[in-house]
Amino acid sequence: MNFTVTVYIIAQALAPALWGPLADRTGRRPMFLLAILTYTISCIGLALAPSYPVLLVMRLMQSFGASPTIAIGMYSYAISNGSSVPLIRDNLLHLRSLWHHWGYQHFVYVRRDNFINVIRVVLDNGYRRGTYFSLMGMTRHVMTTTAPMIGGVIAQELTWRWIWWILAIAGGIMVMLMFFFVPETLRSLVGNGSGYANPTPTQWWRRRQRLKRQQQSTEADPSQPPPPIPDTATATNIPTTQPRKRINPFKSLIFLKEPDVMCALVFGGLCFGTQQSFLVTTSNVLANIYHLSVMNVGLCFIVGGVGAFLGSLTAGRMLDSEYKRVAIDFCGHVPEKGEIPHDFPIFKARLRYPLCAAIIMEAAVMTFGWCVHTIQPLPVPLAMLFICKSSTIPVKSSLTSHSHIRFYSLLYPYWDIQRSTDIGG
User: Fold this and answer.
1) Would you say 384 and 368 are in contact if contact means Cβ atoms under 8 Å apart?
2) Residue 125 pLDDT
3) pLDDT, tens only, 306-328
4) 237-263 pLDDT, tens per residue?
5) Three-state secondary structure readout of the chain
6) 18, 203, 220, 414: most buried, per Cβ within 10 A?
7) More confidently predicted of 136 and 385
8) Which of 407, 406, 410 is nearest to 185 (CA)?
9) Most confidently predicted of 8-12, 35-39, 320-324, 339-343
10) Superfamily of domain 1-90+119-125+159-216 in the CATH hierarchy
11) Mean of pLDDT values over 268-288
């Protein structure tokens, strides 16, 4: 079982690096549809897998289709909420001018080609960001720990193959919802949303009706100028078209040469790798040492789900509270959007809390190992599961809210690389 998890996470680490550039070139909507369709087909293959090698291949394909949705979705959230600089490329290109404008004293922490300082400049509504990220991560973390419970019930009452059939049905429903209701969000194609690209059926029908009315109006009064029809060429807030470049899935690797980026990645990767390893081994421990049935093992993960839920709520409030405290000490008040000084100590505001949470998480993992080694009563290791899940979310929320959400979509795969390395075979 551990090997199947390792295969899944390796694909989860590598897939966003390929899907991301494709989404930036062709649009997010078609990549979302293709990714979820790939996931659905792989679930059908898993349900019908006749042998273990086929199961591994389908598991790899499943991860390849499912994992890009997180990175692409996080980047879509960044665009929809608006930032001071519309594109990652623009952030990097603006760094030289920022350097000359503010001088060396404001960039003493890192080298002049480091993009972290651009992130420090374009922070917006930072005192609310901790809550936003915690709420966004709540669903994922809660489902990660409650899914074994649902899977255990299905496997015991039906068979393990029905787990994949149910996931295939859910994936098919998501494909339909995405196809009919989710529009394109890539700024270079649709700008602020008024452009026309990769349309939903409703958008296509409305445009067709407008064109039909325009044609009828022109035939009735040829002297009347036709009303404009929004498209990718005329929509507002669309950046200047850039020449198409060849897709390079390894382009984001340039960020790994930055020392501060590597520190954040290693710290986050170790924490998430520890947490993932903890979840993988918990099932074996509960089944082999405490002799629980498949259903009871799944039910034990309810504790982790509750911890993830409470951790999400607590992390957001504590991050925002810490940010406000540092802002008041530094500025005398909580700055609004666009008013944050370029020398604001964002590292102090965002990274103090996750250090405490990481220490608590590691202590819970070590205590869990001691409980298993000495075969303590079942409530004790379950309490450690609760503490581990509730303390993991603050670490991730802190790192993502401290960095910048659009850069998170690029750096997310490398956390998975570190995590798959920690889990091993």
Assistant:
1) yes
2) 44
3) 888 888 777 777 777 777 788 78
4) 454 445 555 666 666 677 777 777 777
5) CHHHHHHHHHHHHHHHHHHHHHHHHHCHHHHHHHHHHHHHHHHHHHHHCCCHHHHHHHHHHHHHHHCHHHHHHHHHHHHHHCCCCCCHHHHHHCHHHHHHHHCHHHHCCCCCCCCHHHHHHCCCCHHHHHHHHHHHHHHHHHHHHHHHHHHHHHHHHCCCHHHHHHHHHHHHHHHHHHHHHCCCCCHHHHCCCCCCCCCCHHHHHHHHHHHHHHHHHHHHCCCCCCCCCCCCCCCCCCCCCCCCCCCCCCHHHHHHHCHHHHHHHHHHHHHHHHHHHHHHHHHHHHHHCCCCCHHHHHHHHHHHHHHHHHHHHHHHHHHHHHHHHHHHHHHCCCCCCCCCCCCCCHHHHHHHHHHHHHHHHHHHHHHHHHHHHHCCCCHHHHHHHHHHHHHHHHHHHHHHHHCCHHHHHHHHHHHHHHHHHHHCC
6) 414
7) 385
8) 406
9) 35-39
10) MFS general substrate transporter like domains (1.20.1250.20)
11) 80
Hey, what are 414's tokens? Answer: 């490398």
Question: Confidence class of residue 389 from pLDDT cuts 50, 70 and 90?
Answer: confident
pTM (2 d.p.): 0.64
